[in-house]
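Predicting holo structure, FE2/S2 (inorganic) cluster bound.
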Amino acid sequence: MALARRFLMQSSVAAGVLADPVLALAAFTMPDGRLWPQVKVGNVKDLEQSKPVGFNYPDEKSPAWLVKLSGAAYEGAGPDSNIVAFSAICTHMGCPVEFVGDRFICPCHYSMFDPAKNGQVYQGLASDYLPQIALEIDAAGDIQAVRMSGLVWGRVSDAPVRT
Ligand code: FES
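Done. Tokens:
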């Protein structure tokens, strides 16, 4: 199921936004009714292939990776559909994952996740995909994180942690 369709099924959409394609991807709500935060995470011109950039999403307690892959990815953003973002927390037991050789690897028990395939686990003890963060890129090349699929490890809700 396409990432966008999954969001549609998991979330409600603010009334009327589908009529405006510019706003359609930016106005999804979480199950508790709040809007997903929009966070600028970089600019296309600053990204180097296979050199991940860290950021936090959907809140300051949730590390994530932004990375430009060598090839097109499922729900990839940018002119080559190869810019993706994922939670940096392993879905097995919450260790931080590292980006090595166009994949995410967890050093704790060696789960491996494919960022070109929606964060699919293809080796190791993790049983769930690495949560993917949807991206939008504006005309200036600024990259915004706009919503997330799946649960960050240890959470009972996608909602950002209140501080
Ligand atoms: S915590 Fe990542 S594989 Fe166990």
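The first helix runs from residue 3 to 10.
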